[in-house]
Amino acid sequence: MNTPTPNTAPLRIVIVSPVLADANNGNWQTAQRWRALLAPHSARIVKQWPDADAHQHLAQQDQVMLALHARRSAASVAAWAERKPSGTRGLAVVLTGTDLYRDIQDDAAAQTSLALASQLVVLQANGPAALPVDLHAKTRVIFQSSTALPTVAKPPATAQLRAVMVGHLRAEKSPQTLFAAARLLQAETTLFIDHIGEALDPALGQAAQATAAACPNYRWLGTQPNKATRRHIQRAHVLVHTSLMEGGAHVIMEAVLSGTPVLASRIPGNVGMLGDDYAGYFELGDAEGLAELLRRCRDDDWLAQLSAQCALRAPLFSAESERAALHQLVHDLNAPSNINKA
């Protein structure tokens, strides 16, 4: 990994996040963490750029933009490209799962963001493969980080297995796969599933309620504060992640850094986080496959194998690695030549 050039003067950085603190989702968590990791540079977070009239003077002083989401931040990206000098624009676009695996295929605004960016950032190892080959030279991978939590003692999985799924109830997260698996497992008296997430789709919220009514070992806990969510992950034997598309799931990283192994859908974004040879994949939408893996997790030896594989990935998600990669990114964006670096 490249390391930041020492003695770089502090920069004025603006992070564009399509959602702010009230959403409590991955974009906001990324923006907030990056603002802290970029110190001693001065970084601020806005929903759009340029922001309110009262802050026009700040917009004029911004030297680097990190725009989260090619489609949803497209107006800010276009405004930056129009208002800043045409040489060193200092513009990086950070690509989410819906960018990589849906929007850039046919959304003109997302495609324009890709073209305008000096650098593209993806958040897992398979991200570059989703982009046109001619964009690879200006694309880099930056794995995200989180605070590591100690592994806590848990009852033997043979006696009582606790699984948790974390993710707002929306189509991209495929919660229907978990609902169907829970129904297949409803007769299992020593296997319990907790489900954390807000019902962004009311129909999925109704489906979660119906699943809880039919399956005594499934609980939908709704939205939870981040600290409480992490405690649930820390205390579970295994995290379930059923997504259709992911740019680099926070919750996988948080599970790995809590000593909790993962059962994940075999999609590029999850494989880019956990590795090609990880043993805990089920096929996308395969409720029977997920149910069978959950049953298998009651074998403590197999669960230990998953934990060992996850532990090997943990160094990718360290704050030190993410900090170094971010500082290298903003240094390169502000370099006079603005040379694209892979």
Cα-to-Cα separation, first versus last residue: 11 Å
Beta fraction = 15-25%
Using only C-alpha atoms, the radius of gyration works out to: 21 Å
Alpha-beta classification? alpha/beta
Low-pLDDT segments, ≥5 res: 1-7
CATH class descriptor name of the largest domain:
Alpha Beta
Shape: elongated
User: Could you say how many structural domains there are in total?
Assistant: 2
| Tally of helical runs | 13
Q: Helix fraction?
A: 25-40%
Kindly report the average pLDDT value: 91
How do the SSEs run, as a string of H and E?
EHEHEHEHHEEEHEHEHEHEHEHHH
CATH topology of the largest domain: Rossmann fold
- Sheet of most strands: 6 strands, parallel
**Considering the protein shown, what is the CATH homologous superfamily of the largest domain?**
Glycogen Phosphorylase B
Strand order of the largest sheet: 2-1-3-4-5-6
Number of strands: 12
| CATH architectural type of the largest domain | 3-Layer(aba) Sandwich
Model description:
With 342 residues, the chain is of the alpha/beta class. The protein has two domains: 12-145 and 318-334, 3-Layer(aba) Sandwich (Rossmann fold), CATH 3.40.50; 161-317, Rossmann fold. It is 39% helix and 15% strand. It contains 13 helices and twelve strands. The protein has helices spanning 26-37, 56-61, 74-83, 97-106, 108-116, 175-184, 202-214, 226-235, 250-256, 268-274, 287-296, 300-313, 319-334, and strands at residues 12-16, 42-46, 64-68, 91-94, 119-122, 139-141, 161-166, 191-196, 218-222, 238-241, 262-265, 281-282. The strands form two sheets. A six-stranded parallel beta sheet has the order 2-1-3-4-5-6, sandwiched between helices. The protein has a six-stranded parallel beta sheet with strand order 9-8-7-10-11-12, sandwiched between helices. Helix 3 crosses helix 5, helix 4 packs across helix 5 and helix 6 packs parallel to helix 7. The model is unreliable at 1-7 (pLDDT under 50).
